[in-house]
Amino acid sequence: MNTNTGLNSEIFISFKNSDFNGNPTRDSKIGKELYEELVSRGLNVFFSNSTLLTLGQAVYKRSIDEALESARVLIIVSTDERYLQSEWVKYEWESFHQDILSGMKKHAQIVPYFAGFTREQIPRSLRDFQTFNTDTHSVAEVSDFVQNILNNIHAQESASASPQKPTGEDNLMLKSKLTSSKVRQSLYTSDSDREYDRLRVQSKNTHECDMAVLREVMRELPEKDTYWILDLGCAYNYVGNMRFGGLPNVKVLGIDISEKCLAYAREHSDGEKFHFRHLNLEDVMMEECLRDIMEELGIEKFDVMFGALLTLHLKKPVTVLKHLRKFLSRDGFIILRGSDDGSVLALNDEGLVQKILDKCSALVGFSDRQNGRKLYHQLEAAGYRDIRVQTFIKDISGKDIDERDEIFFERFSYRANNFRKIMEADPTNEIKRNEYLFMKYALEELEETFTNHDFWYCEHDFIAWARGR
């Protein structure tokens, strides 16, 4: 079985969520009890997320259709015969039943769980399925029945697929599906999911704003034979190669916590100009480790420290900035680039962008999505002087479809990953599952919206730079 991600679910629970007065139904309570019981057995269950309706009926229907497509068993919970004829409940059981009749769903079953309806009260299409009574059959009994159905389905499919005994590798794969994924304490990792591609796009889209400040800083530095730049969180070194690769008399130390990213950076960068080391800026031994690296490379002080989207991932950014200031030359500069969801403006999206931003802001463990406005204060609190801040607008005016897609990919595509990681760490938690599904479908809808010609979007990149003393 799959872990309970809410996707590729084998069981679909159909019920009416609210009565005709807008109050929660008894059906929703029974449905939730069923969900919790089935999930506790390691089964993958779809439990309708009514919050998706706030994204519109089209998005809600898509989520329902995807779940019905993968389901092997449909459980219909109803304590009022009128609920069976309500819009979504009727759509769910009718479409599932039609798939059984057409042969699309071989071995699939419908399990009615009703409140003592007479045969005449049950729709004709459902009368021949074994029915359970909500007043006399417990949730556990229904779950036993459903689990037996799935066991039989799996046995039939296994027998028809191959008469051979499963190999040890096959058994290992089956067992691995029962193991839920673990989530890092820090939700963001530069080497996960599609960050490789997204960081490359981000590096290109922010090149001009970075270079505008970097050129000014380099002009203000006193002349010397070699300038040392510390790239804080260099990842794959996309930014480093584009920003520092063409600068004369410059050497760069790139640091990052991902060995995977550093390996790529070493392979795709000039070994004479760029040096890479593993370093965690929030480790208690950070200063000692950095001193050792500097001694190894013959670095007295850094002339420039550069951090692109650094502080939003730090637990204590001011503390880190204070520690770093000790390693900056007297005439040196620190440059920090940040982003801020509060700078976002959108038109003709029916509030979709703001719904996504609000969800991200409320998610515990999400990076600081309002870090742009805090850069000045953080630098000042860490003891830097001559602080300057500049903003650079990024919008979709005059952009073609491919360019719009890139902005969506850079600014939004990754956001569902953090919700997914939280859900996978607690796969039986209905709220976390629903939050992930909401974000997944909201982002799918927004991706389509970005291609609409009447849609407009903008936000700002924030860059702050300052002297260390």
What features would you highlight for this structure?
single chain; Rossmann fold; eight-stranded mixed beta sheet; 16 helices; five-stranded parallel beta sheet; 42% helix; alpha/beta; 2 domains; 469 residues
Describe the structure.
The chain is of the alpha/beta class and 469 residues long. The chain folds into two domains: 11-176, Rossmann fold (3-Layer(aba) Sandwich); 195-467, Rossmann fold, CATH 3.40.50. It is 42% helix and 18% strand. It has 16 helices and 13 strands. The protein has helices spanning 26-40, 57-70, 87-102, 139-161, 168-176, 195-205, 207-220, 238-244, 259-267, 286-297, 317-325, 352-362, 375-381, 401-411, 415-425, 430-449; strands at residues 11-14, 45-47, 73-78, 109-114, 132-133, 227-232, 250-256, 274-278, 302-308, 328-339, 345-347, 385-395, 456-467. Strands 6, 7, 8, 9, 10, 11, 12 and 13 form an eight-stranded mixed β-sheet that branches. Strands 2-1-3-4-5 form a five-stranded parallel β-sheet, with helices on both faces. α1 (26-40) links the parallel β1 and β2 (45-47). α6 crosses α14 (401-411) and α15 (415-425) runs antiparallel to α16.
